[in-house]
Design goal:
This protein has one domain: TIM Barrel. Helices cover 29% and strands 14% of the residues. The protein has eleven helices and 13 strands. The protein has an eight-stranded parallel barrel, surrounded by seven helices. The longest helix has 20 residues. The C terminus is likely disordered. Keywords: Flavoprotein, FMN, NADP, Oxidoreductase. InterPro entries: Aldolase_TIM, OxRdtase_FMN_N, YqjM-like.
Length: 406
């Protein structure tokens, strides 16, 4: 089935200012250019797992889900974490990109996103020791084989489980490590064939790359464990392999957790684990390998640590990496107001804004943010009669957070 072009027009899709000169004072609605890819505004949909795939294949649900964001003006839509191997999924219902049969289903989503003028991205991932779990809305338990899980085939850098009710991982052999590196590169090739424009490597939230980065989860004694140089080796090998096959004309991003939160001070040192200082050095190294942007998240690798879950609590990491590694960054995490997103860009704390759960609560986040600033932006033709009636229902207000930069 062909996808009709529903956008207002090719040059001025939903989410772009009708008169760019009149919107020059609002950075959220400035285009964002990397390589040959031009994103029409600086608001993107953060990758969020929907746990609705069948054998890794995207389906009609995803058409509706991602299409709604494109229709409502999101500049970039990053499709959820997609496993580079079957056992690299978080749950049996997670998306995958480990075989060529999955390309056509991904391309359906890509075509819908592009039909509205938005830019399609995807996050490729390996869940490491947090694999074979249940979708969170069903509970928090290890899936068995009868229900599609692989509890005896969960892997990590070491045999240290994430928590008591998670799988007992097997430490990867060096040959298995090399195979997973190749799988990341193969998934990147498939993403390109499907028409993806921005590729993001998932190195955050306690999944495989993050497992290797942190000494709290990486207890290896070979060249992949111990020192900072050894712990970052796997992640750098993945980046190098992916950049070698990903078109040079397209941006490559990586999401990292900037701290494990073992130190109560988010900007403090944790030399035996993972902290903002090591994240800055890692950002410098992946930049040299051809990464174009660091998506700055945090946590997820250690069970039971406390998070400073206040609005914009992760922006300080994006600002620190942007300043010290001299690379573009994306801010993410409890960004729920357009004015806060604009403030982040205006104060040069980040170059791009990724919004997650607020898009689930309000898929008109882009359109309503424009109304907050009295910016006349293009709406979908079919919705244009409702422009003056749109109202924001979420009254949660952000707060200015004091940022301490190392």
């Amino acid at each position: 089935m062909s996808v009709p072009d529903l956008a207002a027009n090719k040059l001025n899709p939903p989410g772009t200012p009708v008169n760019p000169e009149e919107a020059k004072h609002v950075k959220l609605f400035h285009p964002f250019q990397q390589k040959s890819v031009k994103i029409h505004n600086r608001i993107g949909v953060s990758p969020m797992c929907m746990y609705s795939s069948v054998r890794g294949h995207l389906n009609d649900y995803h058409i509706l889900h991602y299409g709604s964001f494109a229709l409502k003006g999101a500049g970039l839509i990053i499709i959820e974490a997609s496993g580079v191997v079957p056992e690299g999924r978080i749950t049996p219902q997670c998306s995958g990109l480990w075989n060529d049969d999955q390309i056509k289903d991904l391309k359906r989503i890509v075509d819908v996103i592009k039909s509205q003028g938005s830019t399609p991205g995807i996050q490729i991932a390996h869940a490491g020791r947090k694999a074979s779990m249940s979708p969170p809305f069903k509970g928090d338990y290890l899936e068995n084989e009868a229900d599609g899980g692989w509890p005896n085939n969960v892997v990590g850098p070491s045999d240290v489980p994430f928590a008591d009710h998670y799988a007992q991982p097997r430490a990867l052999t060096k040959e298995q490590i090399k195979s997973i590196v190749r799988s990341f590169a193969d998934a990147a090739v498939r993403a390109d064939k499907a028409g993806i424009e921005v590729l993001e490597i998932h190195g955050a939230h306690g999944y495989l790359i993050g497992n290797f980065l942190s000494g709290h989860s990486n207890k290896r004694t070979d060249e992949y464990g111990g020192s900072y140089e050894n712990r970052t080796r796997f992640g750098l090998e993945v980046v190098k392999a992916v950049r070698a096959v990903w078109p040079t004309s397209k941006p490559l991003w990586i999401r990292i957790s900037c701290t494990d939160y073992v130190n109560p001070d988010p900007m403090g040192h944790d030399p035996n684990g993972w902290d903002i200082y090591q994240s800055i050095e890692f950002a410098k190294e992946v930049k040299r390998l051809g990464v174009d942007l660091i998506d700055c998240s945090s946590g997820g690798n250690i069970k039971g640590v406390k998070y400073p879950a206040v609005p914009m609590y992760q922006v300080q990491f994006a600002e620190a990496i942007r300043r010290h590694a001299q690379i573009d960054t994306a801010a993410v995490g409890l960004i729920v107001e357009g004015k806060d997103a604009e403030d982040i860009l205006r104060k040069e704390k980040a170059d791009f804004i990724l919004v997650g759960r607020e898009f689930l609560r309000d898929n008109e986040f882009v359109l309503v943010s424009a109304q907050e600033f009295d910016v006349n932006i293009t709406w979908p033709n079919q919705y244009s009669w409702a422009v003056k009636k749109a109202r924001r229902h979420n009254t949660t207000k952000g707060s200015d957070e004091k940022t301490t930069i190392p």
